[in-house]
Amino acid sequence: MPTCPLCASTETPHFYHDSRRVYHRCACCDLIFVPAEQHLGPEAEKAVYDRHENSPDDPGYRRFLSRLYGPLCKRLAPGARGLDFGAGPGPTLSVMFEEAGHPMAIFDPFYAPDVAVLERRYDFVTATEVAEHLFAPGQEFERLSGLLKPGGWLGLMTKRVTTRESFESWHYILDPTHVCFFSEASFEWLANHLEMHVEFPASDVVLMQKKSR
């Protein structure tokens, strides 16, 4: 059985398959994932992202992001500094936070690959529609947790797995760049592993707070 990319367990039996891919489910952290040999290569992956047409000038996209922006903004001190990780080709959430007085850095491996921003510490880090794309989510969330100051917030947006029946007909698995699918139990495992507190303000929003020392 393949190793779970979140918790490194090898208890990952076959969960489901369709005409394109196989999906395994981890018995430890409940992550459902596509094995590495079925991931897209970098060029094919970027070609999918290049078709995204997100923009801060799009009020509909702003409304979508407000599902995370609203609850997270309420928890931040004035002037809190943030990083938008996986900002994509049309960074927008960072613009929304800057408009509210929060200085922002952005990082994206394809569109804003300045690794210098990953050497700083932040009051909050956001990753919207990113978790489902991560090839190595365990490593990436360790890194994001390390970028947070004590008491800092990690704000995520990703749709969550509920039932097997809904998974089999779920539009989310049709995107070839989506390779990891989290349930609420997956995020509870992650929060415990990272020693963070976790909240679920909406069906596709997760807030995790690093413990203060």
Summary, kept brief:
The chain has 213 residues and is of the alpha/beta class. The protein contains 6 helices and 10 strands; from the N terminus they run E-E-E-H-H-E-H-E-E-H-E-H-E-H-E-E. The protein is globular and about 45 Å long.
Characterise the protein shown here:
The strands form two sheets. A six-stranded mixed beta sheet has the order 5-4-6-7-10-9, with helices on both faces. A four-stranded antiparallel beta sheet has the order 1-2-3-8, with no helix packed on it. It has helices at residues 42-49, 59-73, 93-99, 137-146, 164-168, 184-194; strands at 14-17, 22-25, 32-33, 82-85, 104-107, 122-128, 148-157, 180-181, 196-202, 205-210. The chain contains six helices and ten strands. Helices cover 26% and strands 23% of the residues. The protein has 213 residues and is of the alpha/beta class. The termini are far apart. Helix 3 (93-99) links the parallel strand 4 and strand 5. One of its GO terms (biological process) is methylation. Pfam families: Methyltransf_23. Keywords: Methyltransferase, Transferase. InterPro entries: SAM-dependent_MTases_sf (IPR029063).
Gross geometry: globular
Class by alpha and beta content: alpha/beta
Can you identify the CATH superfamily?
Vaccinia Virus protein VP39
Residues in β-strands, percent: 15-25%
Total beta strand runs = 10
Radius of gyration equals: 17 Å
> How many structural domains are formed by the residues?
1
Please outline the major beta sheet. Answer: 6 strands, mixed
If strands are numbered along the chain, what order do they take across the biggest sheet? 5-4-6-7-10-9
Which architecture name does CATH use? 3-Layer(aba) Sandwich
Q: Could you state the oligomeric state of the chains shown? A: single chain
- Mean pLDDT reading: 96
